[in-house]
Amino acid sequence: MTHTAASSGPGTGRKLLLIGGGHSHVEVLRRFGRHPVADMALTLLSRDRHTPYSGMLPGYVAGHYRWADVHIDLARLARFAGARFIQDTATGLMLEDRTVRCESGYVLPWDRLSLNIGSTPSLEATGAAEHAVAVKPIHRFNDRWLALLARVREGSRRLRIAVVGGGAGGVELLLAMQYRLRRECHALGQDPDRLAFALFTRGRTILPTHPTGVQRRFLHVLAERGIGLHCGTAVSAVDATGLETEDGRHHRADEVVWVTRAGGPEWLCETGLALDSQGFIKVRESLQTVTDPDVFAAGDIASMVRHPREKAGVVAVRQGPPLAANLRRSLTGRPVRAWRPQRHWLALISTGDRYAVASRGWLGFGGRWLWHCKDWIDRRFMRRYRTRDD
Ligand SMILES: Cc1cc2nc3c(=O)[nH]c(=O)nc-3n(C[C@H](O)[C@H](O)[C@H](O)COP(=O)(O)OP(=O)(O)OC[C@H]3O[C@@H](n4cnc5c(N)ncnc54)[C@H](O)[C@@H]3O)c2cc1C
User: Fold this and answer.
1) What confidence tens digit (pLDDT) does each residue in 88-126 have?
2) What is the pLDDT of residues 54-70, one digit of tens each?
3) How many whole angstroms from 112 Cα to the centroid of ligand 1?
4) Is there a common fold for 14-120+262-345+375-383 and 123-260?
């Protein structure tokens, strides 16, 4: 980005508080940085300073990208937008007082509020919170991933890695992990077959929201790569030695990665905001919550009442521009506008080895060139949020 910081410094005028540095809020910050609203104090409150771009996460694990390539520095982006950046976690929201409470005890006032906090993995199986690692928060996953890499590099014993969750995230992540870890073994002159991989899903098949042709392709890839597949059985417990499935079987595992369907965080239940059955905030077509027109939500945490959609980064990205526009309209006293999400979009699911499968509606096809398209799209996306000092 080449524009200089916005003039709307913190501490004056109407207060717009953004909670979470997700895919929609980064676009809000970029737009407010380029075209500031006069007499507005903008604050970004986020648990993490570095927010990962989901599309590139499996590529980072596979070793195609560096850590710095796949995340956006929110403190820098906030500076560009003339916003105050607070690294803290929201734990409460008081609609009557127009305040948000943070983990540190800080209380932040707002006139307009927007939530883009993603979804919270439900580590519901006994012992999962203690023994498994979820993909989010990302810094915790990354620490555990780096530790696993080190274990593979330093040891020579057999290691079993299990991924729980048969959606696109789980399948992509597993294939990326296998690709990277086997390459590490090769590079060290070790037998890569000392690493065993397995995928567990309660669904009858993998990738349930994708066409059968795409499911078949990935079933073939998993079989070809010797990955154990356990469909139709939920994981009921995780301990230090592995995991147990609902049919009572115990499966040994040295690392359990949790990528199952997620929900909204507990603290939202206390806020008075209307939530759907999974704990996501119900929003209108304007991205205003159904409860309070001064409170907006976007990305995974938002549940569009009239247009329910799958939770995906691409939806959160597309909500960025209408969210920014409606926040601006709301702050300047103009009527907000309705926005309708697309029914179908192109998903590019990678197989770890610089190959991707395209999935849209009933359509599915694959190729190396598709991975390069994905790479180009993802890198272009990231460039939008790099400030001059990045
Ligand atoms: C391995 C994997 C691969 C995926 N690949 C794709 C893909 O290729 N394409 C795709 O469309 N989707 C993909 N997804 C899904 C995608 O990750 C999510 O749909 C997307 O990240 C949701 O974005 P978001 O903007 O809602 O929130 P997020 O990107 O999750 O961002 C949430 C932000 O809020 C902050 N935050 C959270 N809680 C709080 C709090 N209480 N207080 C303050 N800050 C908070 C976090 O620090 C973070 O900055 C993938 C998912 C996984 C697990």
Assistant:
1) 999 999 999 999 999 999 999 999 999 999 998 888 899
2) 889 999 999 999 999 99
3) 22
4) yes
Q: Candidates 91, 117, 304, 349: which one to mutate for ligand 1, based on the most atoms within 8 Å of Cβ?
A: 117
131 Cβ contact list (under 8 Å, min separation 6): 238, 239, 240, 256
Amino acid at 80: F
> For the chain, what are the domain ranges?
14-120+262-345+375-383, 123-260
Specify the amino acid at residue 333.
G
What does the alpha-carbon distance between residue 37 and residue 50 come to, in Å, rounded to a whole number? 25
Residue with tokens 């409860």: 291
Query: Is CATH 3.50.50.60 correct for 14-120+262-345+375-383?
Result: yes
Cα 164 to middle of ligand 1, angstroms = 18
Task: Encode 62-86: b = buried (16+ Cβ within 10 Å), e = exposed.
Answer: bebbeeeebbbbbbbbbbbbbbbbb
Mutate-to-test residue for ligand 1 from 44, 54, 115, 142, highest number of ligand atoms within 8 A of CB: 54
Amino acid of residue 243: L
Q: Is the CB of 73 under 6 A from ligand 1?
A: no
**Tokens representing 136?**
């989010």
Whether domain 123-260 has CATH 3.30.70.20: no
